[in-house]
Amino acid sequence: MFQSNVFDYVNVLDRAADASWMRNEAIGNNLSNVDTPGYKRQDVAFEDVLKRAMGKSNYRSTDAKVSSLDLKRLVGRVYTDHANFSYRVDGNNVDPDTEGVMLAENQLKYQGLIASINQEFVNLQTVMK
Fold first, then answer.
1. What are phi and psi of 39, to 5 degrees?
2. pLDDT tens track for 89-123
């Protein structure tokens, strides 16, 4: 049997899409709790995790970096934004306008990731023909 790195990019794109989905849920929770006193907004950290994982060696190709990624460590993490600022006296720090913009941005990102995954499979089909 032979070793192949055919799905390396698909796996990374899949992890990014999962994190984007998690962020969509976090933004939805933020918007649902916009009137909850003391609620602190949540977000998902993934881009920094990917950046650190990819930036380990400046002298390697992107293909080599992607193939050496540890997918178990490439996971989005939900965190609570405990910033000291608040838009209201009750301590809630959710701004509905900002959350709406972040939701639109995240939806575009998710659609782009899904399109990229689909294109990877189209490329594989082309190669197999």
1. -70, 135
2. 888 999 999 999 999 999 999 999 999 999 989 98
Would you say 50 and 104 are in contact if contact means Cβ atoms under 8 Å apart? no
Enumerate the β-bridge partners of residue 42: 80
Model pTM score: 0.84
Instruction: Name which of 91, 83, 88, 84 is nearest 43 in CA terms.
Output: 83
SS (H, E, C) the chain: CCCCCCCHHHHHHHHHHHHHHHHHHHHHHHHHCCCCCCCCCEEEECHHHHHHHHCCCCCCCHHHHHHCCCCCCCCCEEEECCCCCCCCCCCCCCCHHHHHHHHHHHHHHHHHHHHHHHHHHHHHHHHHC
Q: Is 23 exposed, middle or buried (0-12, 13-18, 19+ CB in 10 A)?
A: buried
What single letter denotes the amino acid at residue 17? A
- Residue for token pair 């934004």: 81
Write the pLDDT tens digit of every residue in 35-63: 999 899 999 999 999 988 888 667 788 88
